[in-house]
């Protein structure tokens, strides 16, 4: 009898973390490595947020808090939803977790029974299917092609729904593609969901504030108020506020769901870090003007990377509407050999050869459920991105 749970055999380690770790190991060994695999802004956390954390420490706010968040932070989250999304929640409808990932995981653990199905559009964030599996559910993967802008169509959604469907996981703008849904795109999907009242929506809005070219962010419960009572709207401070390490995410939804999620959290991690909660409070209530500059910089980097990659033989790179990722297609590279003699028979082989031969770390598309592609995070300096794109082009020009 194995000591390790059978459940673990169905779950894969995070490929994004694995690639980031491999790049760090090579860099520590003295190799010239450019890491484009981590989804983490390179900006520092704004000073007023750090100052709030220091004040919390000085005031002795270092004890246990309520299991799923201090009242002040929950009130600020309610205000944020009203201000930014036109959504109205009471503090009893809000939960705060140790990062957005915990909020999603708590929701799935609190609701899924064995055999329950969860629709996941692909490309997807790598953790979605494994979290569903850990919770006893069945991931139902729906491919969303580059021809459709990597967006779920209403026809594909309708076809994926069965009597066992419990959730649709919706992510806009998307990790890994940066694809976003306009109001009409989303209305077409919510019209389908209205016909299937047993299907709930788990909306991951983590990249809400990183939209480009004037693209308007909208979230499902905002577009279709009739879905308000069967939607968990999730967000956090990690990406927009450059607070990845602070580990604060939050969600809002029906009281019965939030109560069940609180029970899960009470028996796992208990409260998020008290100091991080006061920092998140300052993030949500403090100045928001720096977000405009963050967006400007990310849009410039997006344009740089998209332009350089589309000049590279064998690569087609769509222009994303948000987040800080691109998801280029490498169909034309499959079946070729690298200058180092490696057969490029998959996007995983492409990413491995690229790292080992040029020192550029990206994440292969199969990790996100749609191939042959790879993901670049352009959350780094223009200089680094220019050099990375130069190496990628040299690598592709060397394919035979």
Keywords:
3-stranded antiparallel β-sheet; 14% strand; 2 domains; Aspartate Aminotransferase, domain 1; Aspartate Aminotransferase, domain 2; alpha/beta; 7-stranded mixed β-sheet; 400 residues; EC 2.6.1.-; 14 strands
Poorly predicted runs are none
Helix content: 25-40%
Q: Specify the overall morphology.
A: globular
**Biggest β-sheet description:** 7 strands, mixed
**What is the CATH fold-level name of the largest domain?**
Aspartate Aminotransferase, domain 2
Q: Determine the number of helices (DSSP H or I, runs of at least 4 residues).
A: 13
Provide the number of structural domains. Answer: 2
How far apart are the first and last residues' alpha carbons, in Å?
49 Å
- Biggest sheet strand line-up: 2-8-7-6-5-3-4
How many E-type strands?
14
- Please give the oligomerization state of what you see: single chain
In the CATH hierarchy, the architecture of the largest domain is: 3-Layer(aba) Sandwich
The name of the CATH superfamily of the largest domain reads: Type I PLP-dependent aspartate aminotransferase-like (Major domain)
Keywords: Aminotransferase, Pyridoxal phosphate, Transferase
Family: Belongs to the class-I pyridoxal-phosphate-dependent aminotransferase family.
Catalytic activity: L-aspartate + 2-oxoglutarate = oxaloacetate + L-glutamate
Subunit structure: Homodimer.
């Amino acid at each position: 009898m194995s000591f390790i749970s059978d459940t673990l055999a169905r779950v894969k380690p995070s490929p994004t973390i694995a690639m980031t770790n491999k790049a760090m190991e090579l860099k520590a060994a003295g190799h010239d490595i450019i890491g484009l695999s981590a989804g983490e802004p390179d900006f520092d956390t704004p000073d007023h947020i750090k100052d709030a954390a220091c004040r919390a420490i000085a005031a002795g706010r270092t004890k246990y808090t309520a299991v799923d968040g201090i009242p002040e932070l929950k009130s600020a989250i309610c205000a944020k939803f009203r201000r930014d999304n036109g959504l109205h929640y009471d503090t009893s409808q809000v939960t705060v977790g140790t990062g957005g990932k915990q909020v999603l995981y708590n929701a799935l653990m609190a609701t899924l029974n064995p055999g329950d199905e969860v629709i996941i559009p692909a490309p997807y964030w790598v953790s979605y299917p494994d979290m569903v599996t850990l919770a006893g559910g069945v991931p139902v993967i729906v491919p969303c092609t580059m021809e459709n802008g990597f967006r779920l169509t209403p026809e594909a959604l309708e076809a994926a729904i069965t009597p066992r469907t419990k959730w649709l996981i919706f992510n806009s703008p998307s990790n890994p593609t940066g694809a976003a849904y306009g109001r009409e795109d989303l209305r077409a999907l919510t019209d389908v969901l209205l016909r299937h009242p047993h299907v709930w929506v788990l909306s991951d809005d983590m990249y809400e504030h990183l939209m480009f070219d004037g693209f308007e962010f909208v979230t499902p419960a905002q577009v279709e108020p009739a879905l308000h009572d069967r939607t968990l709207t999730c967000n956090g401070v990690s990406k927009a506020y450059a607070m990845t390490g602070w580990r604060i995410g939050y969600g809002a939804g029906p009281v019965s769901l939030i109560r069940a999620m609180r029970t899960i959290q009470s028996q796992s991690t208990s409260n998020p870090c008290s100091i991080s909660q006061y920092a998140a409070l300052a993030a949500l209530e403090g100045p928001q003007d720096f977000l405009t500059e963050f967006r400007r910089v990310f849009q410039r980097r997006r344009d740089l990377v998209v332009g350089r990659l589309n000049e590279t033989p064998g690569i087609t790179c769509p222009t994303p509407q948000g987040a800080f990722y691109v998801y280029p297609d490498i169909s034309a590279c499959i079946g070729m050999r690298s200058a180092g003699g490696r057969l490029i028979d998959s996007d995983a082989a492409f990413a491995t050869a690229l790292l080992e031969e040029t020192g550029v770390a990206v994440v292969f598309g199969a990790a996100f459920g749609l191939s042959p592609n790879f993901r670049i995070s352009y959350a780094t300096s223009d200089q680094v991105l220019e050099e990375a794109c130069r190496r990628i082009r040299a690598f592709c020009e060397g394919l035979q």
